[in-house]
């Protein structure tokens, strides 16, 4: 591939994404301070450099996958002066809409271009190259980024101007958090009523209660063998990240005058669960529902 890519952030999501770019023939130069992330990236054939600035210098496209908006803006402050004029920055982190728009403004002021392109699909989607990208930014920049994003994702949607990708992601993850709590409550109720998990799944997965949380990410072992529930709730998508995303959603609800009682309650539930289980997959919320309900496990 003719375009060279700098990649910052090689964690559970970023690492597989960078590896897929290498597999597709892109020249990828990446940085992550974590020794474990470096070791895996090296095994995946990703060329490692010793700093974020080195990753961004001389590249056509710079992709970031970081943990929060403050870090994205700090990293941009370091990278923008070092990058070649007109570099296309693509931030795949999930951050506040205001931070995404501020990052785009900073990139433009430094003579570059920027897209916010958060993802949905989890670690399995990152590994398989089947992520969904929600992209905010200019039409021409989106067109340039599209071939690169299509390597890492099965669906790429241009959602409008800068920040709109983050807007779509925040709304999506608010739905996801709410649906996982609702599903968990229904599963625990089914346990109390004598329903087996498999019977519950066989009915609901093809009925009006069907959801991605059930059919792809079922929070109990068995019905969906690839879900984190079958691996002691190892993330996946960690509770700490869901807690962060629901916090962003609540901030957006309040800032825009939206009556979002269910979203706020979901955020409160995950905030409490995160205090003891932030390193578990967010689908482990079912264990909290069960515990609070005095239950000990599934029906036989």
Give descriptors for this structure.
13% strand, 3-stranded mixed β-sheet, alpha/beta, 300 residues, 6-stranded parallel β-sheet, 9 strands
Number of helical segments?
13
How much of the sequence lies in strands comes to: 5-15%
Helicity, in percent? 40-55%
- Arrangement of strands in the largest sheet: 3-2-1-4-5-6
What pattern of helices and strands is seen along the backbone?
A: EHEHEHEHEHEEHEHEHHHHHH
Mean of pLDDT = 96
The chain-level structural class is: alpha/beta
Using only CA atoms, what is the Rg?
20 Å
Major sheet: size, sense and barrel closure?
A: 6 strands, parallel
TL;DR?
With about 300 residues, the protein is α/β, with parallel strands linked by helices. It contains 13 helices and nine strands.
What does this protein structure show overall?
The chain has 300 residues and is of the alpha/beta class. 51% of the residues lie in helices and 13% in strands. The chain has 13 helices and nine strands. It has helices at 14-23, 35-43, 52-56, 69-79, 97-109, 122-128, 139-152, 164-193, 197-204, 212-215, 239-255, 261-277, 285-292; strands spanning 4-8, 27-31, 47-48, 61-64, 88-91, 113-116, 119-120, 131-136, 153-160. A six-stranded parallel beta sheet has the order 3-2-1-4-5-6, sandwiched between helices. Helix 4 links the parallel strand 4 and strand 5 (88-91). Helix 8 (164-193) crosses helix 11. It is globular, with a radius of gyration of 20 Å. The termini are far apart. The model has no long low-confidence stretch (mean pLDDT 96). It comes from Nocardia rhamnosiphila. Pathway: Amino-acid degradation; L-valine degradation. Its EC number is 1.1.1.31. Residues 163-286 form the 3-hydroxyisobutyrate dehydrogenase-like NAD-binding domain. It is an enzyme of class 1 (oxidoreductase).
């Amino acid at each position: 591939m003719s375009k060279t890519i700098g990649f910052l952030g090689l964690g559970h999501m970023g690492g597989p994404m960078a590896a897929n770019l290498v597999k597709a023939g892109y020249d990828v130069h990446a940085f992550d301070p974590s020794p474990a992330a470096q070791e895996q990236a090296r095994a995946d054939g990703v060329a490692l450099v010793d700093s974020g600035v080195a990753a961004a210098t001389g590249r056509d496209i710079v992709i970031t996958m970081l943990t929060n908006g403050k870090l994205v803006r700090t990293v941009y402050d370091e990278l923008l002066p070092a990058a070649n004029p007109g570099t296309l920055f693509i931030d795949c982190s999930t951050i506040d809409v205001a931070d995404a728009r501020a990052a785009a403004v900073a990139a433009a002021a430094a003579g570059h271009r920027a897209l916010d392109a958060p993802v949905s699909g989890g670690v399995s989607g990152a590994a398989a190259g089947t992520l969904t990208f929600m992209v905010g930014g200019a039409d021409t920049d989106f067109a340039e980024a599209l071939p690169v994003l299509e390597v890492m994702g099965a669906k790429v949607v241009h959602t409008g101007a800068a920040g709109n990708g983050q807007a779509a992601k925040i709304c999506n993850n608010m739905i996801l958090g709410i649906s996982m709590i609702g599903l968990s409550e229904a599963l625990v109720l089914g346990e109390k009523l004598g329903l087996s998990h498999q019977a519950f799944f066989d009915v609901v997965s093809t009925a009006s209660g069907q959801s991605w949380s059930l059919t792809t990410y079922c929070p109990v072992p068995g019905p969906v063998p690839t879900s984190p529930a079958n691996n002691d709730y190892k993330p996946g998508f960690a509770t700490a990240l869901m807690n962060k995303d629901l916090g962003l959603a609540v901030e957006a609800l309040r800032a825009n005058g939206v009556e979002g009682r269910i979203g706020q309650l979901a955020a409160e539930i995950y905030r409490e669960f995160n205090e003891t289980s932030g390193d578990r997959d967010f689908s482990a919320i079912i264990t909290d529902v069960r515990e609070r309900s005095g239950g000990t496990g599934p029906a036989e």
